[in-house]
Fold:
Amino acid sequence: MNRDEAFELIKQVLTDVVPGADLDALSPDENFRDGLEMDSLDFLNFIEALSGRTGLPLPETDYPSLNTLNACADYVASRTPTAY
Structure:
């Protein structure tokens, strides 16, 4: 998965977890937990859904790398195979 694909997937997962979320108003470097007013359960649902959609294990130690759209896209793209 390339970075653009990862970015779009993350936006889809966020929309699934936080219905009605205005992702266009969210800066790619803004902490989306704060920007979307996600509580800890919302974030865990996001992590679980993202793991399910990517097949990646997402250990708790990596959660700080998954708080912004850009950081999350970098994380996912660097850990998934790229289709050629």
Summary: The two ends are 10 Å apart (CA to CA). Residues 37 and 71 are 18 Å apart (CA to CA). The helical segments are 3-17, 32-35, 40-54, 69-79. The chain has a mean pLDDT of 94.
